[in-house]
Amino acid sequence: MGEMTWYGLIDGSLLEFMGTSGIIAGQGTRSSNVNLILGAGCAVIGLALFFWAVPLSIRYNALTTGLRERHPGINPPPTPEWRARNTKIMTVMFRFVGVFLVLLSIIYLFPLSRH
């Protein structure tokens, strides 16, 4: 069976779909506006997670401790030592995710600087 080619016009750019292989070839498959929005959004969320990690972890641990106190059969409430340890663990996790999102935003925004 021969390979079929279909051409379509999306957002003013020509996209070429090659046969059944599913390969999309062409310029403009993702516009620079989408990269700007995704990059800026990831940067804002990442920075917010990084700088507000301590209050977020305190609130998260208060929520989970309340759930554990209401339902002790599922998981017993933590001791005061473990509450402090859980807060530190969640702070590190929120900051790690924040740094990851900031690095992801750099990946989205870097190609925009070369135009």
What low-confidence regions span 5 or more consecutive residues with pLDDT below 50? 1-9, 16-27
* Secondary-structure class: alpha+beta
Rg over C-alpha atoms, rounded to the nearest angstrom: 23 Å
Number of domains: 2
Amount of beta strand:
5-15%
Mean pLDDT: 78
Q: What distance lies between the first and last C-alpha atoms, to the nearest angstrom?
A: 41 Å
Shape: elongated
How helix-rich are the residues, as a percent range?
A: 55-70%
Query: What is the helix/strand order?
Result: EEEHHH
**What composes the largest sheet?**
3 strands, antiparallel
Spatial strand sequence of the major β-sheet: 1-2-3
- The count of strands amounts to 3
Counted by DSSP, the helix tally is: 3
Task: Give an overview in words.
The protein is α+β, with helices and mostly antiparallel strands and 115 residues long. It folds into 2 domains: 1-29, no CATH class; 31-113. It has 3 helices and 3 strands, in the order βββααα. It has helices spanning 32-51, 53-70, 80-113; strands spanning 5-10, 13-18, 23-25. It has a 3-stranded antiparallel beta sheet with strand order 1-2-3, with no helix packed on it. A hairpin with a 4-residue loop joins strand 2 and strand 3. Helix 1 (32-51) runs antiparallel to helix 3 (80-113) and helix 2 crosses helix 3 (80-113). The radius of gyration is 23 Å and the shape is elongated. The two termini are 41 Å apart.
Descriptive labels:
115 residues, alpha+beta, 2 domains, 3-stranded antiparallel sheet, 3 helices
